[in-house]
């Protein structure tokens, strides 16, 4: 019997130290908290299908009474009237998101591996600098970032958004913390068998830190999916989907229905990805747990 099976059987045999009433009260409290946290999500979904008269009712209603898809048809009409095709905005968003997320996960992982598992000089100092960089907000570093992007010649290109995503220090911090949990004996046995460092990294380290890079995918996808390009993307043909949708939202009361549809679209894609990734994270964590 393996160690993992023994641990699982111990957890099954373990009895809770609270009464039935305490268990019911706990689950009731968790249900109320969960319902309260889901309320904005439920309201956004219902608002996307409300006719205009229900959108302006006071006090506002959470649930729609007469659902309609006219908000989405109005949004489609507004987007079709733009001189830039709607498909172009979608393509720009896909390029920024897919390339940015993939590069961020790969670069953060490759930078974290030597800090966690290789003997390199001053690695504690380097990691301290990474942790220190997490203390600065985006507003503080916006001007230096703009100066660097301009000096590199990336202004008004996809790289102006993608390259800063590669250098996000949160990914390096998270990957390094997860990689430290991998036993050194496992890596040493692979090296003794003749595996190169690249083989050790891609075949052993990366599969065992799947919870970390799944989390990075969710966080970075959310950031890039909602980006408008900021001060870097000035050409209309390079603008992402969020910029075009936000322009519609700023149209005022007359576009309230289309604005509700915009909120639903911007929110639905990251939430769908999170639900898919969450199942993988839970499954990976349940089957991991190696120790020295």
Question: Could you please describe the fold and organization of this structure?
Answer:
The protein is mostly helical and 292 residues long. The protein has helices at 3-13, 20-47, 52-55, 70-80, 86-117, 123-133, 138-152, 159-166, 169-179, 184-192, 197-208, 210-225, 241-249, 256-287. The protein contains 14 helices and no strands. The two termini are 18 Å apart.
Summarize the structure.
The chain is mainly α and 292 residues long.
Would you spell out the secondary-structure blueprint of this structure?
Layout: H1 3-13, H2 20-47, H3 52-55, H4 70-80, H5 86-117, H6 123-133, H7 138-152, H8 159-166, H9 169-179, H10 184-192, H11 197-208, H12 210-225, H13 241-249, H14 256-287
Helix pairs in contact: 4-14, 5-8, 5-9, 5-12, 6-9, 10-11, 12-14, 13-14
Task: Considering the chains and any ligands shown, give keywords for the structure.
single chain, 292 residues, mainly alpha, MetI-like fold, 2 domains, globular, disordered C terminus
User: What is the percent of helical residues?
Assistant: over 70%
Structural category is: mainly alpha
Kindly give the count of domains: 2
Helix and strand sequence = HHHHHHHHHHHHHH
Please describe the biggest sheet, giving its number of strands, its sense, and whether it closes into a barrel: none
Note poorly predicted spans: 287-292
CATH fold naming of the largest domain: MetI-like fold
């Amino acid at each position: 019997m393996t160690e993992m099976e023994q641990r699982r059987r111990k957890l099954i045999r373990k009895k809770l130290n609270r009464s039935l009433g305490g268990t019911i009260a706990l689950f009731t409290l968790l249900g109320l908290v969960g319902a309260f946290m889901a309320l904005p999500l439920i309201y956004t979904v219902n608002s996307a299908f409300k006719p205009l008269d229900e959108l302006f009712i006071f006090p506002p209603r959470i649930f729609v009474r007469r659902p309609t898809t006219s908000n989405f048809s109005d949004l489609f009409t507004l987007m079709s009237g733009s001189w830039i095709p709607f498909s172009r905005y979608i393509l720009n968003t896909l390029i920024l998101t897919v390339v940015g997320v993939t590069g961020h996960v790969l670069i953060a992982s490759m930078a974290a591996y030597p800090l966690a598992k290789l003997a390199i000089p001053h690695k504690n100092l380097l990691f301290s600098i990474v942790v220190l960089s997490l203390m600065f907000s985006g507003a503080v570093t916006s001007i230096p970032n703009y100066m660097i992007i301009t000096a590199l010649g990336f202004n008004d290109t996809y790289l102006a958004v993608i390259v800063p995503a590669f250098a996000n220090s949160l990914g390096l911090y998270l990957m390094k913390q997860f990689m430290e949990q991998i036993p050194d004996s496992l890596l040493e046995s692979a090296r003794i068998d003749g595996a190169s460092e690249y083989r050790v990294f891609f075949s052993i380290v990366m599969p065992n830190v799947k919870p970390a890079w799944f989390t990075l995918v969710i966080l970075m996808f959310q950031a890039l999916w909602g980006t408008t390009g900021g001060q870097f993307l000035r050409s209309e043909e390079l603008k992402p989907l969020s910029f075009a949708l936000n322009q519609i939202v700023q149209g005022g009361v007359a576009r309230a229905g289309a604005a509700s549809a915009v909120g639903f679209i911007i929110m639905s894609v990251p939430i769908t990805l999170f639900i898919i990734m969450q199942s993988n994270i839970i499954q990976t964590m349940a089957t991991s747990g190696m120790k020295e």
